[in-house]
Amino acid sequence: MIAHYGPKAEGWLDAVPSVLGQVADRWSLSLEGYHDAGHASVIATASDLDERPRLLKAWVDPARYRNEIQALRLWAGGMTVDVIETADDQAVALLEMIGGRPGGSDWRVRETQMVAGALHGLHLRGRSRPSTVSLPLLSDYLRCEVLPRIEKRALNLDLGPWRSLVDDEVQALAGLHEDPGRSTVLHGDLYRENVPFDIKGHPRLIDPVPMVGDAAFDWAFWTVYYELGRETSQRLATAARISRIPVPVIAPWCRLLSVDGLLYYVDTGDPRAPQMAEVLSFLSAREARGDV
């Protein structure tokens, strides 16, 4: 978290135990312990007066807190985690504990199809209420963050055997454009750990980084990152079938995310770089063959 937000996060982290204690008293909760500390939030387990398990989530960035809560409330109704209480003054929320325990239940029947259905449902709901949200735009994220960092890293990094692959993909990015007709509220962070299952075997999407933009971005993120290097082709086919967005439309977004991920992994010395290179090679070869 300090690496992501800088030294200002140190003071926030020092204050988190006191903040969570204050909010727990406000909502008559019993704090039990910490569950997770990622790069954007700290999560603690708790129970309410009826001994129901809950999660307390505190965000270091109030803007990210507001965006996430806005999206979760927009999507409320069984496809995401339910928001029970919020403390805007502290950027803390009380959330349900999916599956009765951190990480959800172990029941993941027909996982790929179920998750794809849930994501499609989120997009339908997000598309039906575009005037009710005020969230960052995918177009700004791409223009101001993703494309500049791809260009910078592609120029400066020693990519070894992946140089020609990356150069080809960077050149192809110029042809990538959003379709306003597919614009919706995006989840934006579809890793497998962000899709726990409840006790009825239903996926519940959590920890969004919501934006408004082309649904193809979410389907590409899910295809590439849900389980990096595993069942990529199957997820791509399922994404196209469920979303009714053709594979040739989703695939370039997959390649954008893959080249961005590969450059990041090389830059940070992440051991997943070879896995991402294999995914990008698969997608590049698929494009060269003209597969549909």
pLDDT averaged residue by residue: 93
**What structural class do the secondary elements suggest?**
alpha+beta
- Report the total helices: 10
The low-pLDDT segments are none
The spatial strand order of the largest sheet comes to 1-2-3-5-4
Query: What is the number of beta strands?
Result: 7
CATH topology of the largest domain: Aminoglycoside 3'-phosphotransferase, Chain: A, domain 2
| CATH homology superfamily name of the largest domain | Aminoglycoside phosphotransferase (APH), C-terminal lobe
For the record, the CATH architecture of the largest domain stands as Alpha-Beta Complex
C-alpha geometry: globular
* N-to-C CA distance: 41 Å
Number of domain units:
2
CATH class placement of the largest domain: Alpha Beta
- Cα radius of gyration in angstroms: 20 Å
* DSSP helix fraction: 40-55%
Order of helices and strands: HHEEEHEEHHHEEHHHH
| Major sheet attributes | 5 strands, antiparallel
InterPro entries: Kinase-like_dom_sf (IPR011009), NH2Glyco/OHUrea_AB-resist_kin (IPR006748)
GO molecular function, one term: phosphotransferase activity, alcohol group as acceptor
Keywords: Transferase
Protein name: Phosphotransferase
